[in-house]
Amino acid sequence: MKLLKSRYALFSLRQNIRSLARLLTIDEKELISFVMELFNDNDFNLHVRKVYKTIGRLDFGQLAALPELYAIIRAISPQIIIETGVASGLSSAFILHALRRNDSGWLYSIDLPPYMIRYEDTEFVSLPKGLEVGWAVKGEDRKRWSLIFGNSLDVLPKLCKKLGKLDIFIHDSRHTYSVMFNEYKNCWPYLRSGGLLISDDVTRNDAFKDFSILVQRKPIFLVAPRIFPIWSGGICDKIAVIGILRK
Ligand SMILES: C[S@@+](CC[C@H](N)C(=O)[O-])C[C@H]1O[C@@H](n2cnc3c(N)ncnc32)[C@H](O)[C@@H]1O
Fold it and tell me: In terms of CB atoms within 10 Å, which end of the chain has fewer, N or C?
């Protein structure tokens, strides 16, 4: 079963890279070389394995498709990225590691201060006990990072206005129709032409579908395990769907 799940993860990664290469008009081999760079980065992989061990089998909702996200950032060298939803900071860790390798770019991450959330009738904190928002980001990767606390719908408009332009926006905060749609709507005017809007969990409601229709862009979808087997000791975990629009 473990082997089957690992094969599925590799198969979905291959499909995702193919779709991304088409969307970004980049050679597939280039994207694969960045995924291999990540998989061969022993220090970083050891760190990520430790992070997953600390998180344990509890679901703290980390962004899926992290190898793909790393490859995108290495391939297009974005200067400004905004993400909403940090929690432990797995997505931030991968983004910042790629930015460090690029030796350029900046990540602005927005999250509420740690709080209790309800999810499918279970109540749990958004962080393992005693740890702070973004704890999973490696010390040396923190140099290109601003972590901002507040409600994304208050912070995003002001931040976008201040920055003027951004290359990538990533939604991974609260997955309600209203929060998702409004985050997309706030950042879209500031995305540069060719910039990317990336959203986790697009199957939760119609926000992403409706927004794609509004801005008349054809999305691509990445289907990926929440935890890639090389960091989880073979466990493939839940599958998530990430939507991407290119402006
Ligand atoms: C799914 S987790 C983020 C996981 C993270 N991207 C990762 O890969 O590890 C969702 C986070 O969104 C934050 N959040 C929820 N609603 C928010 C809002 N309106 N504004 C900012 N952050 C929000 C929560 O505090 C939680 O930490």
Answer: N
